[in-house]
């Protein structure tokens, strides 16, 4: 059986396995069936996320080691919970070589290392290039030999046997690796990375020996019955994701497998032996249906006024993807070009094809049509390259061609870096829609579109995960729910934000608009958190400053802008007042989103802490400590009969979350089909409702517009003649026509169970 519901916990050194084990009884009371953890294998020293695994043979000592894992298992068993673990097959942490035994051996012994096959290295280029030196002409002068190792400041590297005599530079020149200026790495690296992160080296899990070595421990947990589900991180980086997932499924045939596959709107997933994705596709649909799509033109006008330009999302994405394809990912581009040395224009043509690629990647022969679309668009943008494009695409269509294989790995990285990590921070007209798996140019989702997508998920991927918040979302579900209110108040938002950017200017007006949306979306937010978010956003967007070349003048102006929000009493009061005006309808949207995520087709995941209001921004903000004591206390009060109001406590969201999760766990037969239910009456468009096969979910859409109409009036739902019990209020309803005003009198959401 798949999970009925999961709860994601960021297991990390400051919240180790012991602390996680202590949550088991709370999670069981909340109603989930499975704990879902961040990666547990040994990560790089100081890692706060676990995605930089350095040792696949053991649980990280920093989070409690094997003893902690066994204690967690005992606690989960006692609470009747299962475990879903996150694994990272695409890459390993190499930033601290001494912490990674296999990487250390590769550095010491080069291509003759028994672990050389573990990593995706192009040895034809000679020594393994490591971009770690300072941008100084005499950086190599800082090398020293100590304790049989080569040291550069606090970094340590091995010395091959018989090569340790002479000056430190002479010793360095004899090694199987070459330390180079960190700024040269983008063009000269000869190992595949995770995106453009030099500390994460690509693994070759397509090799059976590497697969076995890197999965042995995880599969041991599965074999002993301690793990029932596996979440696969970033499969798009793998050489052959389908082959890998088939091998994993064969090794763990009864495990619930979900993959972090980012689907673009309208894209279908290959027919892999998995339960589905990690839920970004559902996130885009669920959040979008609570956005008023009729006001898009207002935000287009506001964006033009603020920025002084008319920006096309498609052109912006092309620009950012092409730039990243030829700079941060230049090493991967160069490696492909070495496969076609006879084509002089290959670098431009391959980068252009990647910039025009409409999805993250294809899985040849599946998805060949995406290459055809990219070729067509590339030819339109660069007609002079058409002969070269045709020459290259002839090879890129061949699943066996090494060029085609590497191009598929390349396009996913180009999309992620160019869109998620750059364009999302430049295209700021309405940031509630700037989320992984969504096209921000698609302003909202109609109820008909939502029903079609939900029906499709029920038919094809009924056990896929659904998510609203993750460790990778750009802003939490409750921030997006509040920002969705702006779409109902375009005039009010236009008035205040135009005044704010005038009295508190920033050289980059698009970034200013993003920061103002973050401020009202997460208000009240501490100054330090907003400062950190603004700086990260600026460097990610790369307009006024960047990570590699920080512009202190611009960053000082940005700090002053954020400080002014807190230090100017009039401005601070105005921001607080406006945020307050959208808070209550934001709560309505939050409860609606949560109801829909928890009841619609798929397996819902609750990200840590989001059972109460959670106004978090992008990581690391969304990894802050969670007050579980407060959540325990509020859940106990709810279970004692307290009917919490929709207010600052967030207990109403806890009520909705716990009641639905428990019902899904206890009565899964009620959630086996999907049928839209349509309201009738003057304001019927404000109702989103559907029948899952024994339960009917009802949510309020566009609460500001509803209040303008003066409430529900004569709006009704047509149900069969049975008696129904509303889960959140324990109220019984009968008859075939149910007044929505009665049903949603206490909360803006309802869940009806057929008696």
UniProtKB/TrEMBL annotation:
Pfam families reported for this sequence: Alpha-amylase (PF00128)
Entries under Gene3D superfamilies matching the protein: Glycosidases (3.20.20.80), Maltooligosyl trehalose synthase, domain 2 (3.30.1590.10), Maltooligosyl trehalose synthase, domain 3 (1.10.150.200), Maltooligosyl trehalose synthase, domain 4 (1.10.10.470)
InterPro entries linked: GH, GH13_cat_dom, Maltooligo_trehalose_synth_4, Trehalose_TreY
Domain Glycosyl hydrolase family 13 catalytic: 10-659
Name of the protein in question: Malto-oligosyltrehalose synthase
Organism: Winogradskya humida
């Amino acid at each position: 059986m798949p999970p009925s519901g999961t709860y994601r916990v960021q297991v990390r050194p400051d919240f180790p396995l012991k602390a996680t084990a202590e949550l088991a009884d709370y999670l069981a009371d909340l109603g989930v069936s499975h704990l879902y953890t961040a990666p547990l294998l040994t990560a790089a020293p100081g890692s706060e996320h676990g995605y930089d695994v350095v040792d696949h043979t053991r649980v990280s000592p920093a989070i409690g080691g094997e003893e902690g894992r066994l204690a967690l298992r005992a606690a989960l068993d006692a609470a009747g919970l299962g475990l879903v673990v996150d694994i990272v097959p695409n890459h390993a942490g190499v930033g601290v070589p001494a912490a990674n035994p296999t990487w250390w051996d590769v550095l010491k012994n080069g291509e003759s290392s028994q672990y050389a096959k573990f990593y995706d290295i192009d040895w034809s280029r000679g020594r393994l290039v490591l971009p770690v030196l300072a941008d100084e002409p005499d950086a190599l002068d800082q090398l020293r030999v100590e304790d049989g190792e080569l040291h550069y400041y606090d970094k340590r590297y091995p010395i091959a046997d018989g090569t340790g005599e002479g000056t430190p530079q002479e010793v360095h020149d004899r090694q199987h690796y070459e330390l180079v200026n960190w700024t040269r790495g983008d063009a000269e690296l000869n190992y595949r990375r995770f995106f453009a992160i030099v500390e994460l080296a690509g693994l070759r899990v397509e090799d059976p020996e590497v697969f076995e070595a890197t999965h042995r421990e995880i599969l041991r947990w599965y074999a002993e019955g301690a793990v029932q589900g596996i979440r696969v991180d970033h499969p798009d980086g793998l050489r052959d994701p389908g082959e890998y997932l088939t091998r994993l499924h064969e090794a763990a045939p009864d495990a619930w497998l979900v993959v972090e596959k980012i689907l673009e709107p309208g894209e279908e997933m290959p027919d892999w032996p998995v339960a589905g994705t990690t839920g970004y596709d559902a996130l885009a649909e669920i959040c979008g249906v609570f956005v008023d799509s009729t006001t898009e033109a207002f935000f287009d006008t506001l964006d033009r006024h603020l920025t002084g330009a008319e920006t096309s999302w498609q052109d912006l994405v092309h620009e950012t993807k092409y730039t990243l394809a030829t700079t941060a990912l230049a090493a991967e581009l160069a490696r492909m070009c070495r496969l076609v040395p006879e084509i002089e224009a290959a670098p431009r043509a391959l980068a252009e094809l990647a910039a025009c690629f409409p999805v993250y990647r294809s899985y040849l022969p599946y998805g060949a049509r995406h290459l055809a679309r990219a070729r067509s668009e590339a030819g339109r943008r660069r007609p002079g390259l058409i002969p070269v494009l045709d020459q290259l695409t002839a090879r890129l269509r061949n699943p066996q061609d090494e060029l085609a294989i590497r191009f598929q790995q390349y396009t996913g990285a180009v999309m992620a870096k160019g869109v998620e990590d750059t364009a999302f921070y430049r295209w700021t007209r309405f940031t509630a829609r700037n989320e992984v798996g969504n096209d921000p140019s698609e302003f909202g989702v109609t109820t008909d579109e939502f029903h079609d997508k939900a029906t499709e998920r029920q038919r094809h991927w009924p056990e896929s995960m659904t998510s609203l918040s993750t460790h990778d979302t750009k802003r939490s579900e409750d921030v997006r729910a509040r920002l969705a209110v702006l779409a109902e108040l375009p005039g009010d938002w236009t008035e205040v934000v135009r005044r704010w950017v005038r009295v508190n200017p920033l050289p980059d007006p698009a970034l200013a608009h993003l920061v103002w949306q973050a401020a009202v979306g997460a208000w009240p937010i501490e100054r330090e958190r907003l400062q950190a978010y603004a700086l990260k956003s600026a460097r990610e967007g790369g307009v006024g400053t960047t990570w590699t070349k920080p512009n202190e003048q611009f960053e000082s102006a940005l700090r002053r802008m954020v400080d002014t929000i807190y230090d100017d009493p009039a401005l601070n009061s105005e921001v607080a007042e406006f945020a307050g005006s959208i808070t209550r309808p934001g709560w309505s949207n939050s409860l609606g989103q949560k109801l829909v995520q928890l009841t619609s087709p798929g397996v819902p995941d609750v990200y840590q802490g989001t059972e109460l209001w959670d106004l978090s921004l992008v990581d690391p903000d969304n990894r802050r400590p969670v007050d579980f004591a407060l959540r325990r206390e509020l859940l106990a009060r709810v279970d004692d009969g307290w009917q919490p109001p929709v207010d600052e406590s967030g207990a109403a969201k806890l009520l909705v979350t716990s009641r639905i999760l428990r019902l899904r766990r206890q009565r899964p037969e009620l959630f086996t089909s999907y049928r839209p239910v349509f309201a009738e009456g003057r304001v019927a468009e404000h109702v989103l409702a559907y029948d899952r096969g024994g339960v009917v979910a009802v949510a309020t859409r566009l609460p500001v517009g509803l209040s303008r109409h003066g409430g529900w009036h004569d709006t009704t739902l047509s149900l069969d003649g049975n008696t129904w019990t509303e889960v959140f209020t324990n109220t019984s309803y009968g008859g075939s026509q149910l007044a929505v005003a009665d049903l949603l009198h206490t909360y803006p959401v309802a869940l009806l169970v057929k008696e």
